[in-house]
Design a protein that fits this description.
Blueprint: H1 12-18, E1 28-35, E2 41-43, E3 51-54, H2 59-67, E4 72-78, H3 87-90, H4 95-106, E5 111-116, E6 130-131, E7 134-135, H5 138-154, E8 158-161, H6 168-178, E9 187-192, H7 199-205, H8 225-237, E10 241-245, H9 251-260, E11 265-269, H10 271-282, H11 288-302, E12 306-309, H12 312-321
Helix pairs in contact: 4-5, 5-6, 9-11
Length: about 325
């Protein structure tokens, strides 16, 4: 037998030599929840190992991020007050704005990305302004652009609109450019699906909708061609990086986006994916380390250049251990 595939599998050193896909710490971004108050280190019950931090308690976490060489974090705000117009999202002294300023002051070399959305700040929990039960697109886009600008003024290195309103990337790009921030990249949640995997995140951020759902603006999980149209539109509007969210159930979308567009592709290993692994690991049903590394390698093999994951610190530690 001239061809024996097992010849390249027999020895660990040979397997390393021929490995096609490599997961690296440089691929990782850690999501971070910043809450109001002082002395806050509050566990998220549905996400074991994930916490809400106040600005003054972030240092220990960020020291680990920097020590392990993780390139950056993405910041989500947990405000104390909500209202119909999401004032806290774009207020100069909002929780994200103060958090970003403090982080960049202490860790200037750490990449700080901000999630740009209104849902955690609205009293109805939707990602835009609501009138007569309907989520308004264009008025919401104006506030999203103001939110992105306030984050950048506070020191954010990159903004990531996650709302899925039509035209928000173009509005953000235009406003940032007009204000002299043309060098700040936009990472768009370009193909964000109306997924059942978001439940634990909504618990962590307090962003669950108070009525209805988000299917009128987030994508139908059954659609693939629509994702390519969404990505194309966001790129035309000025997105520098495009994201597919969630990751596990959408590996085919990641692959199609990567094959179609020659741009950096990010994926979000979302809260539900994290919680499922943690729950099974706590029961002793799985090997958490082996499963997480397999999952994230699969995302990268599918075409992801950047992986946002709550496992970032664990993965960085495991990779360092070899």
């Amino acid at each position: 037998m001239r061809t024996r595939m097992r010849r390249l599998r027999r020895e660990p050193a040979v397997r390393r030599l021929v490995r096609e896909t490599r997961l690296d710490v440089d691929d990782l971004i850690l999501p971070v929840f910043i809450a109001e108050g002082r002395g806050v280190v509050e566990p998220v019950p549905s996400m074991p190992g994930v916490y809400r931090y106040s600005v003054d308690t972030l240092s220990a976490l960020l020291q680990e991020v920097v020590a392990f060489g993780i390139p950056g974090i993405i910041v989500f705000g947990v405000p104390a007050a909500k209202d119909a117009r999401a004032f806290g999202a774009y207020a100069a002294d909002g929780v994200v704005q103060r958090g970003v300023a403090a982080i960049k002051d202490r860790y200037p070399g750490l990449l700080v990305i901000t999630d740009v959305c209104l849902c955690a700040y609205t009293d109805h929990g939707h990602c835009g302004l609501v009138e007569n039960g309907a989520v308004l697109n264009d008025p919401s886009v104006e506030l999203l652009a103001e939110t992105a600008l306030s984050h950048v003024r506070a020191g954010a290195d990159m903004v990531a609109p996650s709302d899925m309103m039509d035209g928000r990337v173009g509005a953000i790009r235009a406003l940032l450019d007009a204000e002299g921030f043309e060098e700040v990249p936009v990472m768009s949640y370009a193909a964000k699906y109306a997924s059942a995997f978001y439940g634990p995140f909504r618990n962590a951020a307090g962003s669950a909708p108070q009525f209805g759902d988000r299917r009128s603006y987030q994508m139908d999980p059954a659609n693939a061609l629509e994702a390519l149209r969404e990505v194309a539109l966001d790129l035309e509007e000025g997105a520098d990086i495009v994201m597919v969210k969630p990751a596990l159930a959408y590996l085919d979308i990641i692959r199609r986006v990567k094959d179609t567009f020659e741009v950096p592709v990010a994926v979000y290993n979302v809260s539900g994916e994290y919680a499922l692994v943690k729950a099974a690991a706590q029961k002793g049903w799985i090997d958490e380390r082996a499963l997480v590394l397999e999952m994230l390698t699969g995302m990268k093999r599918a075409g992801a250049d950047i992986i946002l994951t709550y496992f970032a610190l664990d993965v960085a530690r495991w990779l360092e251990e070899g």
